[in-house]
């Protein structure tokens, strides 16, 4: 069996707002000349936080790592809905926000805890007849989306000052936090959309152990090798 190299494994990246997850993969591939590079769970361009980047033979573990539960923190704006369910989209409705406390908001958020059948947003990479939904959405076409089973372990607001609420959610893979924000707004009758999102954990991995992307891209190959989680350690955590 071929021995593993120092670049067979994974690195933890703290993704900045702006680049896509694929952009991060490309940047690392080009900088270090590694043929096989992948990521374990897409973050929207404006989202920040933990992105697990697998390198070399570490890419064989991407599916297992992608299946881990996730933890997110973010901000929701109440009183406005958008077509993408986040601040990147076009405003579709504006409504007054009823007076409510953080505790009242948490009572409503708690109703989402447990198994949920979640309808993905139109602005997503899910494909319908081979075409990504976001491409249809750009043409003004809306199609029926199959609900997906997800599980919400915890959904709680830590701060609320109208119209903004800061929250933390722990959930299974494949959960659209944008949809969670939108659905809560619909339930409250005032509408809502996601304004910021940060992934703080994925499985046993935490963003506190990650390096910012710009820092990683300044490393030498030797310095990167010291940051790589080896394949066998990675497999034990997958």
**Cα-based radius of gyration, to the nearest Å:** 19 Å
Would you identify the CATH H-level superfamily of the largest domain? Pseudouridine synthase
Counted by DSSP, the helix tally is 8
Distance between the termini: 21 Å
Taken from the alpha-carbon principal axes, the silhouette is globular
CATH architecture of the largest domain: 2-Layer Sandwich
CATH topology of the largest domain: Pseudouridine synthase
Q: How would a textbook summarize the main sheet?
A: 11 strands, mixed
- Low-confidence region ranges: none
Q: Can you give the mean pLDDT?
A: 92
Structural class: alpha+beta
Number of domains as seen in the coordinates: 2
Number of strands: 15
CATH class of the largest domain: Alpha Beta
Note the beta-strand portion.
Answer: 25-35%
Provide the helix percentage: 25-40%
Feature tags:
single chain, 238 residues, alpha+beta, Pseudouridine synthase, eleven-stranded mixed beta sheet, two-stranded antiparallel ribbon
């Amino acid at each position: 069996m071929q021995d593993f190299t120092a670049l067979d494994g994974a690195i933890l990246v703290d993704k900045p707002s702006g680049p896509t997850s694929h952009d991060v993969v490309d940047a690392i591939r080009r900088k270090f000349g590694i043929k096989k590079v992948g990521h374990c769970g897409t973050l929207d361009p404006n989202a920040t936080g933990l992105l697990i980047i697998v390198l070399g033979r570490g890419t064989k573990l991407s599916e297992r790592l992608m299946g881990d539960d996730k933890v997110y923190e973010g901000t929701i704006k109440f009183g406005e809905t958008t077509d993408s369910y986040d601040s990147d989209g076009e405003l579709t409705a504006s409504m007054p926000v009823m007076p409510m406390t953080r505790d009242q908001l948490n009572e409503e958020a708690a109703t989402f805890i447990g198994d949920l059948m979640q309808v993905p947003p139109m602005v997503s990479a899910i494909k319908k007849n081979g075409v990504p939904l976001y491409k249809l959405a750009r043409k003004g076409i809306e199609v029926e989306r199959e609900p997906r089973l997800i599980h919400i372990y915890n959904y709680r607001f830590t701060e609320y000052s109208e119209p903004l609420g800061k929250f933390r959610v722990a959930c299974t893979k494949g959960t659209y936090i944008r949809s969670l924000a939108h659905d809560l707004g619909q339930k409250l009758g005032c509408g809502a959309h996601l304004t910021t999102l940060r992934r703080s954990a994925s499985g046993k991995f935490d963003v506190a152990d990650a390096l910012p992307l710009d820092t990683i891209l300044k490393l030498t190959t030797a310095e990167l090798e010291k940051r790589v989680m080896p394949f066998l350690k990675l497999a034990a955590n997958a």
